[in-house]
Amino acid sequence: MTLWTATEAAAATNGRAIGDWAVNGVSIDTRTIEADDLFVALKAARDGHEFVAQALEKRAGAALVSHIPNGLPGDAPLLLVDDVQAALEDLGRAARARTEARVVAVTGSVGKTSTKEMLAAMLGRQGKTHASVASYNNHWGVPLTLARMPRDTEFAVIEIGMNHPGEIAPLAKQARPHVAMVTTVAAAHLEAFESVTAIAREKASIFEGLEPGGVAVVNADIDDAQVLRDAADAAQAETLSFGTKAREYHLLSVGLEGDLTTSHAQIDGQEITFEIQSAGAHFAMNGLGALAAARALGADLHASIEGLGTWTPFKGRGVRETLAVPGGSIELLDDSYNANPTSMAAALAVLAAAKGPRRIAFVGDMKELGPQADALHAGLADLDAINTIAQVHCIGPLMQALHDALPKGKRGAWTETSAEMAAKLPELIQTGDIVLAKGSLSMGLARVVDGLREMGQGAGSQENTDE
Known about the structure:
Elements: E1 4-5, H1 6-13, E2 16-18, E3 22-23, E4 25-27, E5 37-40, H2 52-57, E6 62-65, E7 78-80, H3 84-98, E8 102-107, H4 112-123, E9 129-131, H5 141-147, E10 155-159, H6 168-175, E11 179-182, H7 196-204, E12 215-219, H8 225-234, E13 238-243, E14 249-257, E15 260-267, E16 270-276, H9 281-297, H10 301-308, E17 319-325, E18 328-335, H11 341-353, E19 359-364, H12 373-378, E20 391-395, H13 399-405, E21 411-415, H14 418-428, E22 434-438, H15 446-454, E23 458-460
Parallel strand pairs: 4-5, 5-6, 6-7, 8-10, 8-11, 9-10, 11-12, 12-13, 13-14, 18-22, 19-20, 19-22, 20-21
Antiparallel strand pairs: 1-3, 2-7, 14-15, 15-16, 17-18, 17-23
Helix pairs in contact: 3-5, 4-9, 4-10, 7-8, 9-10, 14-15
């Protein structure tokens, strides 16, 4: 099915189509562009107009541009607009307007990508489902996801993120969800916010985009749950809460055994059991919230539970692997994609619960925490999980605070960079170890993960932790 014709795209963006073309997808990256995609020439680190010729050489169906790049043939298929970013947003709004899909939007300080994928796994068994790719959740990721949505979509899952105040509400208004979920609120991006409560208000602004009669799904266990409820009331939304303190979706218990999380919950007086093929109590919370959101969309509860049981995490967000090392193997918990104090505590708890002779953590700086950064890093030393972890190796200037706060028996190596730590791996790792790697993306903990893989040949098994 054609996604956009030249006429439709021109009408949606108030642009001028050059040529009579049709496209089946939308792309912003010539490295991954496919034949018959519409290439969107955004201005980011580099001006996308520099890559239009390359996109067309790769058989892109057309390019969305604000001017005609030099050197293009006169019959090049184009959509000419005043502003490419604004046109992408217009295209997203038009895609949203023409579909009858039931839409859910997800935000939160931790777990939004995993929860989005859980919802996609649940809903994909019950109708044609469209979801954000990876973590496409910002000012271009949300409209790009919407612009890619086929007109016959039945369920859509849109992830919405932020770094600064005022970013979520405009994206939510583009998505126009029938259900909006906040996974949790935690100390993240504190450089841009005065407090965690201020972060809660920004997360709660997702409810401003709800369709009339919409449903707000909120975490009842967080300190600022009332902030979320008040925002839902202001949006005239129905509120469903999830968690150990919730009435509607009440979490009764969570059990961890190996790579399996088994949870019991009460919904409308009915006790249910759901399983997640990944270890972590935080997954139980996200899964329960996702069940609430799916059900609010009209999905069947039991089919959703079955779908949830098929979910596994993304690379770098808690994937569990067995890696060969000299003399044997180790278990790797690759949670290297990102970190804040809440997700770091959750990952360390998963490591602590794992069974093995030694549990080893490689942790990197958690960024954007503002004046509280040193205290938040040092505070990790007080977590119960630290008691069962053999060694904590620290990477980065901020993690120096944790290194200094750790008991001497737990204090491992400290390096300024991940590359320096990777060079030390042979002397820090033993056969049979269970190893966690986690830190903010800019710290490059993936270099430590790659170093572990280079010590031997990996054998795959997938499971987790998360962000």
